[in-house]
Amino acid sequence: MSVHTAPTRPHGADQRPPESGWATLRRALGHTPEFTQGLPLTLLLALLATVGRIVVPVAVQQTIDNGIAGAGGPDLDTVRAMVALATGAVVLTAVATWWMNLRLYRSSERGLASLRTRAFRHIHDLSVLHQAAHMRGSLVSRVTGDVDTVSRFVQQGGVILVISVGQVAAATAIMLVYSWQLTLWVWFCFLPLVLLLRTNQRRLATAYAAVRERVGAILATVSEAVVGAAAVRAHAIERRTLERADAAIDAHLAAQDAAQRRAVSVSILTEVVAGVAIGGVLVAGTLLGVDGGISLGGLVAFLFLVSLFVTPVQSGVELLTETQNALAGWRRVLQIMDTEPDVSDPARASGGAAARASGAPAGRPGGTPLPAGPLSLRFEGVGFAYPGGATALRELDLEIPAGRRIAVVGETGSGKTTFAKLLTRLMDPTSGRILLGGVPLPEVSFAELRGRVVMVPQDGFLFDSTIAGNVRYGRPDATDEEIRQAAAELGLADWLDGLPHGVRTPVGQRGESLSAGERQLVALLRAHVAGPELLLLDEATSAVDPATETRLTGALERLAGGRTAITIAHRLSTARAADEVLVFDSGRLVERGPHAELVGIEGGVYARLHASWIAQRRPVG
To answer: Which has the minimum average pLDDT: 76-85, 122-131, 297-306, 469-478?
Structure first.
């Protein structure tokens, strides 16, 4: 018996100690190798740009010392040569910087597009349990806002970082040639700042991690309010909803203020240190010049070099702020990427940890094919417990022959929904195993499982497209004529022809242009076009008017014909037409049999539910 051990902590929670920025960067580059493609040429261009900047101060020194104030008087040839050299250096710097920036932008855009795609696909690979552990807006922010923070760093910060490191090193080397004493003074001023930056970096990392979390909370709150706008207005809770949004925005503002105060304080300190360093160079350089320790041209060149030294340091301080913001966003993206799916596809898994956790066999990456025709179903000692919650299903042993019509009934919380999710492998059992057509469910590839087993949910989700576009999610190559033929087979041709544009009728976002009943009709049509061998219906006749219910009932009868059909029944009337009724109570299968047999069991769960249903239908007054 295959057993899948349930996680003991909330899905998506990250209990590892915070990693260093370099560790995050190394892992991130492992997910996005596009960032480092062509890096040697980019670094060469950065080196050329740095050389061009360093040449200008040297040309100025030579112009002053040998071209203007030389021992033999002004030397125009030297001046012309140095002007030409400086001009060439400026052109070289401009061309190299332009080309380098272009390469960095292109590689970063490719890398970011790849990162978004991989993060989005990975979120879809996670089970419904993993996805439910995060607010939907928070998941969206991983693919949008968090990647955007990485984008700003890679496109702008990457340019600054590449140039700055080389420029500081080159400026220091040339400054040592002119005066080791003045060079030591400059480093003496800036070394404490470097040590301070290392300490402040950790605090900034914490501050910007809080900022990114608050951004996710805002997106979650706003998206929930937008999706639930009808409920918000229906229950007159606009004020409470606005207060929740205001609280999320205020929390983000407070976190952003705290991070910016820390960043600005270091930036101001950098300005002060730069001023002290330059002032010290002027004083000490003048004294050295009097003693012959440095020429006038050398002092001017040294001041140019100090500027080349200070500028990347100041840019580095600003970059530090952006870096911590980007690393915080990167960590949130990596947290999702590092979450290993607990429901793995054997067509993609090849015996890794996820495959073993779900019970998929190693060495069978393509999955095991299902037998042709209607599918049987067997549960062997199946149990399921939500992480940190109560047990939803207990020791279920059940066999459903192929081609049978089954109704599953029970009160709210009895285990019906869990049964459906396990059957469609939206999640895996925590104990026992499920066999479909005699094949263990984790061995069936997702592509075959989704093609052979189709679930029609209680409120069929529709995408912002046409009716035909939504039906084609069941079978992408279905033609308009095939869709019309499928509608006729389900007895829905008159309804489809009565729509303004037939199969081309737009349904709006989430199908809001259609009624609840019409959305369910589209979901049934989609299932029929898909042609599954096992059909799982989550009571598709609830919350509709009587006329639509009659149409739905007829469509369901035709759709279930010749297939194994399992209905999660919220109305006991649905169970009457079933070959067998499964009755769940508190996570256990407590009764099973035909409707006529179960309704006659005195004190039985089904008999009690049936009596309650009869009482609800009895006219009042």
So the answer is: 122-131
pLDDT of residue 383: 92
Confidence of residue 2 (pLDDT cuts 50, 70, 90): very low
d(CA 533, CA 529): 12
Q: What 3 state SS string does 381-446 have?
A: EEEEECCCCCEEEEEEEEEECCCCEEEEECCCCCCHHHHHHHHCCCCCCCEEEEEECCEEHHHCCH
Banded model confidence at residue 233, pLDDT cuts 50, 70, 90: low
* Cα(283)–Cα(429) distance, integer angstroms: 77
Question: Could you tell me which of 111, 100, 91, 208 has the C-alpha nearest to residue 160?
Answer: 100
> What residue spans of 179-237 are helical by DSSP H?
180-227, 229-234
- Topology classification of domain 28-337: ABC transporter transmembrane region fold (1.20.1560)
Percent of the chain with pLDDT over 70: 77
Which position has the token pair 């263990």?
440
DSSP conformational letter for 63: I
Question: b/e per residue, 348-362, with b = 16+ CB within 10 A?
Answer: bbeeeebbbbbbbbe
Contacts (Cβ under 8 Å, ≥6 apart) of 611:
none
Round the CA-based radius of gyration of the chain to a whole number and report it: 35
* Strand partners for 385: 391
Angle at CA of residue 81, ends 75 and 84, nearest 5°: 140
pLDDT in tens, 493-543: 888 888 888 889 888 877 778 887 788 888 888 888 888 888 888 865 455
Contact assessment for residue 470 and residue 476, using Cβ atoms and an 8 Å cutoff: no
φ, ψ at 408 (rounded to 5°): -110, 120
Neighbour order of strands in the sheet with 405-409: 453-456, 534-537, 564-568, 405-409, 580-585, 588-593
For tokens 């009728």, name the residue: 505
Token pair in block for residue 412: 């709210």
**Would you give the end-to-end CA distance of the chain in angstroms?**
57
Q: Which fold has domain 403-617?
A: Rossmann fold (3.40.50)
Kindly give the pairing relationship between strand 580-585 and strand 588-593: antiparallel
Give me the residue spans of the domains in the chain.
28-337, 403-617
Contacts of residue 63, defined as CB under 8 A and 6 or more positions apart, other chains included, come to 78, 79, 82, 83, 297
Q: pLDDT tens for residues 103-133?
A: 877 887 787 777 777 777 777 776 666 555 5
* pTM recorded for the entire structure: 0.62
Distance CA 43, CA 162 (A): 7
Chain segment 480-493, per-residue pLDDT in tens: 899 899 888 888 88
